[in-house]
Amino acid sequence: MATSQNPFVQADGKKPTCMEMLQVILDGEATVEQKDYFKTHMDHCMPCYKEYNVDMAIKELLQAKCCGGNCPEGLVEQIRSKINSTTA
Amino acid sequence: MEIEEYIPHQKYSETEKQDIFNNEFMPHIHSMYNFGYRLTLDRDDAKDLVQDTYLKAYRFIESFQKGTNAKAWLFRILKNSFINDYRKKSKEPSKVDYQEVETYYNSEEVDRQITPDLRVESLKDMIGDEISNALNSLDVDFRTVIILCDLEGFKYEEMAKILDIPIGTVRSRLHRARNLLKEKLKSYAKSMGYNNA
Ligand SMILES: [Zn+2]
Fold first, then answer.
1. What pTM did the predictor assign?
2. DSSP code of residue B12
3. Which domains does chain B show, CATH number per domain?
4. Distance between CA A56 and CA B127 in Å, rounded?
5. Element (H, E) at B176
6. pLDDT tens digits for range B122-161
7. For chain A, what are the domain ranges?
8. Is B140 in contact with B39 (CB distance < 8 Å)?
9. Are A53 and B119 in contact, with CB atoms under 8 Å apart?
10. C-alpha angle with apex B185: B43 to B197, nearest 5 degrees?
11. Mean pLDDT for chain A?
12. Which secondary-structure segment (H or E) carries A33?
């Protein structure tokens, strides 16, 4: 694919590295065109394919295990009563 | 506390204040608590930090513009409170050399770094606290960008505002944070018996 069609190419015309493209994807900054391009790119770039899968698995693990659930019981009421006592 | 963000931009009636507080601020309390916990690594400190943040948010509510990104605004207040009130108390110094990080990231070497050495299968077996411990073990600045991006889904621009750093620094910090996290997970995978992890 020609560089000019690569939607990751910056205004300065610099060709992005695999690592740079992957980061845009992982960081959630990719446009639809960039996502499509990267999908095709992974079909013939094994390192990107493998790294992408590992990175996405980490992201999923983070979301599943590190979101912490709810805040402690009573905190909302505590905040409200503090506010009410200062505004009263 | 930065002064600019607390300059009142508008006048709200008491009802409007309550409305903003209840409908725009309160829905983020669980994310805020998790952020506070991941920063302080202490549940009581996190509780205090979140409470302080909400009280500040209420006090300065007129500097918040209705309908704009309340979550980013609250996260920024919490982060600033953490730096001002908690980080000073803690023993943890900021030991990150960002200059080096930036150069590292921009070098031509980066492509060679794509050498997958952690496997999806070994990650699948991390059903306990491994990922949480790995995240908590990172320097607080690295931990923060992972939380903001991967857990909370903030964009570069929002993260730059929350953290008061340029977008380029957000990007390079995230890059470095991901690598450090991977290194941690790799060592866990090894200890779990994946020699080829
Ligand atoms: Zn590639």
1. 0.86
2. -
3. 4-86 (1.10.1740.10), 98-191 (1.10.10.10)
4. 16
5. helix B167-191
6. 888 888 888 999 999 999 999 999 999 999 999 999 999 9
7. 3-87
8. yes
9. no
10. 160
11. 89
12. helix A32-43
Q: How many CB atoms lie within 10 A of CB B17?
A: 17
Q: What are phi and psi of B7, to 5 degrees?
A: -75, 125
Q: Which residues of A touch B (CB under 8 A)?
A: 17-20, 22-23, 26-29, 47-48, 50-51, 53-55, 57-59, 61-63, 65-72, 75-76, 78-79, 82-83, 86-87
Say if the Cβ atoms of B151 and A82 lie within 8 Å. no
Closest CA to B71 of B113, B23, B37: B23
User: Ligand 1 (ion): which residues have CB within 5 A?
Assistant: A 18, 45, 48
Q: Structure tokens of B114?
A: 């794509």
The DSSP 8-state label assigned to residue B91 in this structure reads S
- Which amino acid makes up residue B159? M
User: Is the Cβ pair A71, B29 closer than 8 Å?
Assistant: yes
Q: Which residues contact B182 (CB under 8 A, 6 or more apart)?
A: A54, A58, B118
